[in-house]
Write a structure and sequence with these properties.
With 143 residues, the chain is an all-alpha fold. The protein is built from 4 helices and no strands. Helix 2 packs antiparallel against helix 3. The longest helix has 34 residues.
Length: 143
């Protein structure tokens, strides 16, 4: 099974330092999981990734939502909805573990997390980054 690693490049940076640092940490964990998939060591790394994501979604999503609220972000409710959907998806995937960790589960976890990163961060978080830059400096140029 060959799966590409995800790199934090300009298209996935929001321009908000703390947020990009937290995203970078997520990328490291996901890429460690991808390496484990490539080397048939994924079972242990899957459990580590899911444990990490349990904490990450609580802390990171809370930080984002509070920060967005502070700046009266008009799409905050949509963002919260997307966070909630990801948490539900994560719970569904964790619920599959008692049935056995197999290639289907490993691939699905990778696909869901990768899609989340590229879509949520690359689009929704990036949109907030643009909003934030304009909010703190109305004359600032787009990222």
């Amino acid at each position: 099974m060959i799966i590409d690693k995800i790199e934090l490049n300009k298209s996935l940076e929001t321009g908000i330092g703390w947020q990009d640092r937290q995203h970078r940490e997520l990328f490291v964990k996901v890429n460690t999981f991808v390496e484990a998939l490539e080397n048939s060591l994924a079972t242990t790394e899957l459990l580590k990734l899911l444990d990490f994501l349990d904490d990450y979604v609580v802390n990171h999503f809370h930080d984002e939502e509070q920060f967005m609220s502070k700046f009266d972000y008009p799409d905050l409710l949509l963002h919260i909805e997307k966070h909630t959907s990801f948490i539900e998806e994560l719970d569904r995937l964790k619920g599959m573990i008692p049935g056995g960790i197999n290639d289907v589960l490993l691939t699905e976890v990778n696909d869901k997390v990768s899609l989340w990163i590229t879509h949520h961060i690359g689009r929704l978080d990036k949109e907030f980054g643009l909003f934030y830059i304009k909010a703190i400096s109305p004359t600032a140029k787009s990222l």
